[in-house]
């Protein structure tokens, strides 16, 4: 027995006629057509009856061979076809008719007519098994028939291109006489309609959770894939694709549309997500094991359209379980599923992106609102680490600084939250990353103090925050700082604040690590360019130069001093352009050039003159200006024993007090006074020439601060006012020998409204020059531009430094025209054109 289709297409070698074998019952050589056909007809009957053991392939092949040689191939072809049709009518169709019961018909017409799902399943499986068995018998029989009639295909069928093989003709009889046969004369439904209805019903039962015979349904779907709509046998005209698949997709659309509406009524986005993903997996499995795999893209598209796309916005907008709820409650599994589902229907993830952006903005604004409701007067805010004993009252400046640190910490926590979502749930999708970054940039820059707060955050960390941390932990802090800087638009303002804070850290030895300071400056340089960090780098160069100068001056004094005892001097020579005006002793008012003055004691003046002579001896064209607001001095104080007192006060006490430079100048005034004598605020100011504000800060450090109250003040208040009187505090007592007076002006604090206005005015003045330079550079290279083009290019050039207002750009253009850097062409029709004037 040979399985497989007959014809030359199924054999690689040429089949020769078998040798003649004399058999008593075989037809003679000259036997006629009827004898050969009778032999073949009986063989076909035996094949259908599965009684093939006595059949001889050679004998049957020779009979067909002889008929074809006698030019009777056409008649043989027709008789075989007719025999199979008769066989169907007598032996197959009656069996199929018995399978088609009324309950089976109801499955396709009205499923409610069936008593239960179990009855429908059993009835359907009985029909499918009968049809499958009939198909398997017919398919096997037609394969064997094609084998014995192989020469019919070779010698007759292939001679006519329009004639199909005997196998194709006979196998198609199943389609014509079984599948396409009507149920009865009055019905327009055929067996294949019932077949498709039963398969769809079985699939729906499986979708509802029942167990079905997948192998049985797969056999029936393969049957439809083996049969074609006509004898041409085009791949795209298989009955599976033409009849079954469209109805399967139509039924799936109706099923999933109703299911989605049911899920929407439940208002549970989490259940919808998990259910939809499960359905996608089920359909993938179904197409691989139950029906054909080529249907998978279409049924997935159906799920995409009806379970995901149709009501996506409604599910995402649900109040209790929607996308906002998932983000707020860190539902990473749900967010991961949501990302995968949305990615199936929209490459840009528009719906997901919009809600995520909006939520970032909302949470960002909530940070600002929450900040206004927090009481920072007691140090640690509620919910932070530390017990009641750790809370200390804060002055207004410290409260503002604490608020700044809190705002930045909250922004960073929000950033960490969305970074985790992007990594764990959104597969670091570039579209969503850009959307989140845009939202952070928007809400951060809406907050007017963002640049100052970011600088204060870095300042706080570099002073105390990195203490005790590992290198990896420090690197995380630096990276967070750079991320915040990256979001800032007014980077020139940030540069101003950072310069001030860095100057205070360096000059007052507040920095925890100069290496870390240089690391963050290096990262800023990589991110923002060399021009942004040039002043910061200059500050460190000044400190290195100052250290070398101090060492050189000490060596010089050791040689020239001839063993005399001198004041130990540690000098910092600062380059004016690198350091902020406030640190350099200049007035903060715009355009003011006056420096802070002071009348130093004779000892200090001699020391200043000595250093200046040493410094200028090797440098020409330099000028040194002494700044008393930033330095400090170690002063040895002797407190005499107080008669009538006991304990420590009855003894002489010696302390070494570190005070601001101006504090040292004030204290030396009391060396020339008699015991118990006092100096008023006005007298001190007249003798020292220190400005009122600076003198108030200085006296606060040495007459009000409890741990360094070297001077006694009348009246005993916590504020310094003109008219106050000061005397040497003979009863001063301290547990430590070395005492450090607070540096009142060294504290990094949030600016008040007046200081903020001054900073912004100075920034605007600087921005005008920057915009001028940008316009001139652009016009010099382009020669002529329209107004819109020039404004656009200026905005692009300055985006890394700040975001200028269009009104500022217009104003600077007009100013440059007035100063004859630009001109408007005289040509008609070009009123908004500008030309560079060489």
UniProtKB/TrEMBL annotation:
The keyword Ubl conjugation applies. Residues 449-703 form the Cullin family profile domain. Keywords: Isopeptide bond, Ubl conjugation. One of its GO terms (biological process) is ubiquitin-dependent protein catabolic process. Residues 1-10 have a biased composition (Gly residues). Residues 13-22 have a biased composition (Basic residues). Residues 1-26 are annotated as: Disordered. One of its GO terms (molecular function) is ubiquitin protein ligase binding. Belongs to the cullin family. This is Cullin. The lineage of its organism: Eukaryota, Fungi, Dikarya, Ascomycota, Pezizomycotina.
């Amino acid at each position: 027995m040979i399985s497989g289709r007959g014809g030359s297409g199924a054999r690689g070698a040429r089949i020769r006629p078998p040798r003649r074998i004399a058999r008593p019952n075989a037809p003679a050589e000259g036997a006629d057509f009827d004898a050969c056909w009778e032999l073949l007809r009986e063989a076909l009957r035996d094949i259908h009856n599965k009684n093939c053991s006595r059949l001889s392939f050679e004998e049957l092949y020779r009979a067909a061979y002889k008929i074809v040689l006698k030019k009777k191939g056409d008649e043989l072809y027709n008789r075989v076809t007719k025999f199979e049709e008769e066989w169907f009518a007598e032996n197959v169709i009656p069996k199929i008719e018995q399978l088609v019961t009324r309950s089976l018909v109801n499955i396709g017409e009205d499923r409610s007519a069936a008593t239960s799902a179990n009855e429908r399943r059993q009835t359907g499986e009985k029909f499918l098994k009968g049809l499958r068995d009939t198909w398997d018998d017919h398919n096997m029989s037609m394969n064997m028939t094609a084998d014995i009639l192989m020469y019919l295909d070779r010698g007759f069928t292939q001679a006519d291109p329009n004639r199909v093989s005997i196998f194709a003709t006979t196998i198609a009889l199943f389609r014509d006489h079984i599948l396409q046969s009507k149920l009865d004369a009055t019905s327009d439904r055929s067996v294949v309609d019932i077949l498709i209805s039963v398969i769809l019903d079985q699939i729906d039962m499986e979708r509802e959770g029942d167990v079905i015979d997948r192998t049985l349904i797969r056999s029936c779907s393969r049957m439809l894939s083996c049969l074609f709509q006509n004898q041409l046998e085009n791949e795209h005209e298989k009955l599976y694709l033409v009849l079954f698949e469209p109805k399967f997709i139509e039924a799936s659309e109706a099923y999933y549309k109703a299911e989605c509406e049911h899920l929407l009524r439940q208002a549970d986005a989490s259940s919808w997500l998990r259910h939809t993903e499960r359905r996608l997996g089920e359909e993938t499995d179904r197409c691989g094991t139950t029906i054909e795999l080529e249907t998978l893209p279409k049924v997935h598209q159906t799920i995409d359209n009806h379970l995901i796309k149709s009501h996506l916005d409604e599910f995402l907008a649900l109040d209790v379980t929607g996308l906002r709820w998932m983000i707020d409650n860190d539902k990473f599994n749900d967010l991961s599923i949501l990302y995968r589902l949305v990615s199936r229907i929209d490459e840009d993830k528009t719906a997901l992106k919009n809600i995520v952006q909006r939520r970032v903005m909302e949470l960002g604004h909530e940070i600002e609102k929450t900040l206004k409701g927090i009481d920072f007067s007691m140090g640690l805010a509620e919910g932070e680490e530390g017990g009641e004993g750790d809370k200390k009252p804060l002055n207004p400046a410290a409260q503002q600084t604490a608020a700044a640190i809190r705002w930045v910490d909250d922004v960073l926590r929000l950033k960490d939250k969305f970074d985790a979502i992007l990594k764990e749930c959104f597969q670091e999708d570039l579209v969503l990353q850009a959307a989140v970054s845009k939202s952070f940039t928007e809400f951060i820059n809406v907050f007017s103090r963002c640049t100052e707060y970011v600088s204060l955050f870095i300042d706080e960390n570099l002073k105390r925050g990195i203490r005790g941390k590992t290198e990896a932990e420090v690197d995380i802090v630096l990276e967070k700082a750079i991320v915040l800087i990256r979001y800032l638009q007014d980077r020139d303002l940030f540069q101003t604040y950072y310069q001030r804070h860095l100057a205070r850290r360096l000059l007052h030895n507040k920095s925890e690590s100069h290496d870390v300071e240089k690391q963050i400056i290096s990262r800023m340089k990589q991110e923002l360019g060399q021009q942004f960090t040039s002043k910061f780098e200059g500050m460190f160069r000044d400190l290195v130069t100052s250290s070398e100068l101090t060492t050189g001056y000490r060596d010089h004094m050791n040689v020239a001093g001839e063993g005399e005892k001198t004041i130990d001097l540690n000098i910092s020579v600062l380059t004016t352009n690198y350091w902020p005006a406030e640190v350099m002793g200049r007035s903060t008012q715009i355009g003011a050039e006056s420096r802070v003055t002071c009348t130093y004691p004779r000892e200090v003046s001699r020391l200043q003159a000595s250093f200046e002579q040493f410094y200028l001896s090797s440098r020409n064209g330099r000028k040194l200006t002494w700044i008393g607001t930033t330095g400090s001095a170690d002063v040895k104080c002797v407190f005499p024993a107080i008669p009538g007192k006991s304990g420590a006060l009855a003894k002489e006490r010696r302390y070494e007090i570190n005070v601001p430079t101006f504090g040292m100048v004030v204290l030396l005034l009391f060396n020339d006074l008699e015991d118990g004598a006092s100096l008023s605020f006005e007298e001190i100011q007249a003798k020292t020439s220190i400005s009122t504000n600076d003198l108030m800060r200085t006296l606060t450090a040495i007459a009000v601060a409890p741990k360094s109250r070297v001077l006694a003040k009348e009246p005993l208040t916590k504020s310094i006012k003109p008219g106050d009187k000061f005397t040497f505090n003979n009863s001063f007592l301290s547990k430590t020998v070395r005492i450090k007076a607070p540096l009142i002006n060294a504290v990094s604090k949030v600016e008040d409204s007046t200081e903020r206005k001054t900073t912004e005015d100075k920034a605007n003045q600087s921005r005008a020059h920057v915009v001028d330079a940008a316009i001139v550079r652009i016009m010099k290279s382009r020669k002529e531009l329209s107004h819109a083009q020039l404004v656009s290019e200026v905005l692009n050039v300055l985006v890394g430094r700040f975001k200028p207002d269009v009104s500022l750009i217009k104003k600077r253009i007009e100013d440059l025209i007035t100063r004859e850097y630009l001109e408007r062409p005289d040509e008609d029709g070009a009123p908004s054109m500008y030309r560079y004037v060489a």
